[in-house]
Each structure stands twice: as C-alpha cells, then as structure tokens.
TrEMBL record:
This is Decapping nuclease. Decapping enzyme for NAD-capped RNAs: specifically hydrolyzes the nicotinamide adenine dinucleotide (NAD) cap from a subset of RNAs by removing the entire NAD moiety from the 5'-end of an NAD-capped RNA. InterPro entries: RAI1 (IPR013961), RAI1-like_fam (IPR039039). GO terms for cellular component: cytosol; nucleus. Belongs to the DXO/Dom3Z family. Its main location: nucleus. It comes from the Eukaryota.
Length: 594
C-alpha cells in the first residue's frame, strides 16, 4: 500500500481540527471502559447499553461538514479511495490520529467494520488472520465465549453500519453512472465496490489483510511474568568470562541463593525497618577502593548473544510462531523506556537479528565502554558502593542474570536482566546505584537517575527496591536512601509535571509504556519478517531507532540499515562489525554451559 501523506491532525498549529476530532474519536479520559457485570446478560441487552454513545459518536464524526470538507487531505487524490478501498480510508484516519488516542467506542466501531470485511459466519473456526480481530473484541467485551462474542458482533453491526453508510457520502468517490442504483448494505460490498474501480480490477486480499492488521486492538497486556532461568558468570582481571553457570527454572531459588551477591545483615535489617537512611550516614567509606582483583565484565561479553542463543535452544519448539519470540538484553528495553518517557527526539538505536529460533535484540554501544570503571571515578564508585554493602565486604567478580520471561500481548519476551542482589526466597530484588551530592540536589539529574532505575526494573517481578548512595566530591559515601518502584516513578513524574505542566497517574504512565512497547515490537516483528530465510545459515539483521516525534507527539519507530547475512559466505560475514560478527557466530553455534 502506498504510504499516505496525512496532515489533518496538527496538535500545535490547528486546534480547530484537533478539537473537532477529539470530541468524537479521541480518548478524553472520560469513562471509556466497557465491561459487563453479569455474565448471564444476553448479547442483545449488553450491546443495547452501548448503542447511544456508540452510534452518536460515530455518526456525528462522519457527518460533520468540517471532516467531509477536509476528507481529500486524508488521501493523495480522489481516486485513491477507489483504488484501495475502505481499509485505506480507515487506516488513514488511525495513522493520522494515533490508535492509542482513540476512545473505546471508536475502537469498537473500527473493529466491527474489520470483522464485517472478513464475512465470518461464526467465530467457532478461525484462521490466523481472523483471530486477531476476535481476540480484540474479546478483550473489549471481557468475554472468551465465542458464541456470545458472535452474537454481540451481530447486534453491534447495525449500530455501526447504519450511521456509517448513511452519514458519509461514499458515492461521491465512486465513478458510476447515474442510472446505476448502488445496493450497498454491508461493509464487504462497500469495500468491493470501491475496489472495483482499481485500474487492475483486483481485490488485493493480501493488501487489505495487512492493512487491517494495523487497525487491530493494540494488545498491551503484560502477563506471565516469571523467572525462567539464572545465569551466573565469573570473570578474570581482564574482564573475560572464565566460568558460566546456566541454571534451570526448577532450581531458580537455590541458584540465586548460591550465586547472587548478598547484602550485609545490617543493610537487610535497615531495609526491613525502612530506616536505611538513618543507619548508614557519614560512614567515611571511600568508594574508589575496590578489591585488587576486581574487573568488570568485558564489553564483548556484556553484549554477547551466546547466552540468549543458548536459552533459545533449550526452549526448543515451544512456540508455533517463532517471529513472536523476542530474546533481548535488558539494556535495549531499558533504553527504549527511557527514550519514550524523556521524549527524546534523537531516540535510541539497537540491532535485531532474526533466525529460525526467533528475534534477538542487541544494544549498539561503544566498544571501549567496558573500561569505564578504570577511567571514570563515578562508574568505579558504583562498584565500590556494591562492595561496601556486600555481606562479605569484598565484591566478587561475579555477575548474576535473571533470564526473565513475560508476555506482552501475543509476543513472548526472554530478557537477560542483570541484578545486583536478591533475597534467597526471590521475594526481594535490589538495584544498587550511586549519585553525587550535587546530582541528588539537581532536579534534572535526580529525575534521570530515578527514571533509569525504574526502567531497569520495569519487567522484573516483585517490585525491586533501589538503594541509592550519595557520594561526595571525594567519592566518600555520606548517605543512603531506598526507593520502591512507585517512589522512583513519583520522583520522575514530579519532574515531568514541573517541566511540562502535565502530571500523569502511575497507572497512566505504565499503560502508556506497555502500549508504546507493544506498538514498537509490532513494527519490529513486521520489519524482521519481511525477508525470507531460505536456509539455516542465513540471518537477517536490521538497525532500528525509536524516538519521540514532536511533529505529531507520537513514538516513532524506524529502520535505518538492514542486511541478510549468509554464514557460508565468509567475506560477507567478515565485513560486519565486531559485535555483529560475534552475534552471528553465537546465533548459529551450540553452547554447552552445564
């Protein structure tokens, strides 16, 4: 489908048009939730309760003269709607307004139209294309009963169809003779009629299905969060990994008890009493003093794909659709969350690799960053803080990772998340960070520190605690604070409100992040499945960017480089950068760590 040149909605310069659309299709934070209290209620009675707001909002939106006068701005020419049909028209509206801004009533209107275009006789037997729309209807109406949902759809159809066909003059865009009486009484006939004027006289089934996928409900529900596995790796003085322990889901508790860093008894007791700040102050600890044999894990190991590749192999063929499986370093998700919340117009870059096992994500970072702890006192002090709080009083060259699993909509994520410390019962996780005294007093620096800590822990279960140490100019630890995830978010949100005169509830912030991530990874999945992998020696790589786009106040995902590598062609692989070559090798080699 041709990319539309849409410009109807301009939030900054055209308040009149924005306010008009906002009245009817944009979520204005009014009562949008639709739920049924009595599961025995009939579909007809249930749908009847939706009829007035549903019909009025949709009909007024389509019949408004201002919208009709500006309709040509949604399409490149008056012939476009005849060429591409109803799906193009609907997609254009949503691309312009932003699907996440639509209210529930408008979403139901669009969803019913989508199902109508599929001409389903029931919901009992669905293919992979059709189930997208039925699942969306199921989420809105809070029911998994297919018979009930189909009855709801049948009763919703006239409520949506009548105002849609009556209010908008589609005949204006059809080149027909005056003596031809159009008998359009359903969405499929309307779409067919529009498409019949395409110069090639084709229905373009694949095109309409791909368009309709973009209109499906954005399923941003987070579910099935669990710790799938534990990885512990020890490094030598050069930062090279010398020992790896790859655990198993059945032994997570014992593995973490054996391999994770332990906080001292004093620190744990202070946390339990919520008096950490009172128990540790003016401690005169020089955070730059690290154990003589301490080394940070090297950048090559930190960005390595081999552990994620190994995890994918242990999972085998659990997933029917491997393109729904994402294996990624936590740093990718962390930086995406930070970027979209900071409204960063430069955004964050990262790589994605697709193999027969799934899609793998890797950060794009500077090769020499692994030496930061040697040259950057602030980074070194961070490790010194971990050393000061540890139970043994000596930081080990040991790095523990949770192989965290969760579902975001219909996509499975397996994330390598480094943790600083945890309790043996897995009920408490701790993130250890430091900040300078000046940074603590600076609203901007403190907000950024809180946002990063909150983002790092976003997908880790049991609401981790962040312990923040204040360091002086001489890197002496002077005070220690503890923050829950909610308190971190509150610190960031207060700065966000002060800076942009807009304060959001915590639930709104979380919903925004899940919705944005769902859309971002829908885009990534579509981009990564656009090239076929003819054989197992091939892998498809793309570079992605996620940023905030000020022009339409949206989160924008784009691709700026792609390449199909064949490991059998050594010259092709050798032209890749260090971390790409490393990833290619890891994704196609078996690794035994048991």
């Amino acid at each position: 489908m041709s990319e539309s040149s849409l410009s109807v909605i301009d939030y900054e310069d055209n308040n009149q048009q924005y306010n008009f659309l906002k009245c009817y299709i944009v979520d204005s934070n009014e009562q949008n939730a639709i739920s049924k209290d009595d599961h025995k209620i009939t579909a007809m009675n249930y749908v009847t309760t939706l009829s007035s707001p549903l019909t009025d909002a949709w009909k007024l939106f389509l019949a408004n003269p201002q919208f009709q006068n500006n309709f040509n701005r949604y399409i490149k020419s008056v012939d476009v709607i005849s060429s591409y049909g109803l799906s193009y028209f609907l997609t254009s509206i949503i691309r312009d307004v932003g699907y996440n801004k639509l209210n529930q009533y408008t979403k139901i209107c669009l969803l019913v139209i989508q199902i109508g275009l599929l001409d389903l006789n029931s919901f009992d037997h669905l293919n992979s294309e059709e189930v997208l729309f039925v699942n969306s209807l199921s989420n809105i109406l809070d029911s998994s009963d297919l018979s009930f949902l189909y009855d709801c759809y049948l009763n919703l159809t006239p409520l949506v169809l009548k105002p849609f066909l009556e209010a908008f003059p589609f005949q204006k865009f059809l080149t027909v003779s005056n003596d031809i009486d159009l008998k359009i009484n359903n969405f499929s006939l309307l779409d067919l009629e529009l498409r019949s004027y395409n110069e090639n006289q084709e229905l373009l089934k694949d095109l309409i299905l791909s368009d309709l996928k973009n209109l499906t409900m954005n399923d941003a529900k987070l579910s099935n969060v669990e710790i799938l596995n534990v990885l512990n790796k020890s490094v030598n003085i050069k930062g090279n990994v010398v020992d790896v322990y790859f655990g198993h889901q059945d032994t997570v508790e014992a593995d973490l008890d054996n391999f994770s860093e332990k906080l001292s008894a004093e620190v744990l007791e202070s946390i339990r009493q919520n008096k950490l700040v009172n128990h540790i102050r003016s401690v005169n600890a020089n955070l730059l003093k690290l154990p003589s044999n301490f080394a940070n894990v090297s950048q090559e190991e930190r960005l390595s794909m081999k552990y994620l590749s190994h995890l994918s192999k242990t999972l085998g063929n659990e997933s029917d659709d491997k393109s729904n499986r994402f294996f990624c370093h936590r740093n990718v998700l962390t930086n995406i969350i930070i970027s979209i919340n900071k409204r960063d117009t430069k955004g964050v870059n990262f790589r994605a690799f697709r193999t027969s096992s799934g899609i793998f994500l890797q950060p794009i970072e500077e090769p020499r960053r692994s030496d930061d702890y040697k040259t950057n006192p602030a980074v070194r002090a961070g490790f010194g803080f971990e050393n000061f709080l540890s139970a043994e009083g000596e930081l080990k060259n040991s790095y523990t990772y949770l192989m965290n699993k969760f579902n975001l909509g219909n996509k499975e994520f397996y994330v390598q998340s480094e943790i600083d410390s945890c309790s043996s019962d897995l009920k408490s996780f701790y993130e250890l960070k430091t900040i300078s005294q000046n940074g603590f007093l600076d609203a901007n620096q403190m907000a950024e520190k809180c946002l990063r800590a909150w983002a790092q822990n976003f997908f880790i279960p049991n609401q981790p605690t962040t312990i923040l140490g204040l360091r002086s100019k001489n890197h002496i630890l002077s005070r220690v604070y503890e923050y829950t995830q909610s308190e971190l978010l509150n610190e960031w949100n207060l700065y966000f409100a002060e800076d942009r005169s807009h304060l959001r509830s915590h639930s709104d912030v979380i919903e925004f992040n899940l919705s944005a991530l769902s859309s971002i990874f829908d885009y990534i999945k579509t981009g990564m499945t656009s090239r076929a992998l003819e054989k197992d020696t091939k892998t498809f790589m793309k570079h992605f960017n996620v940023k905030y786009r000020a022009s339409d106040q949206s989160i924008h995902t784009s691709c700026f480089f792609s390449h199909l590598y064949d490991l059998a062609v050594k010259d092709d692989v050798n032209r890749a950068t260090l971390f790409v070559r490393q990833a290619l090798e890891a994704l196609y080699n078996e690794h035994d760590y048991y």
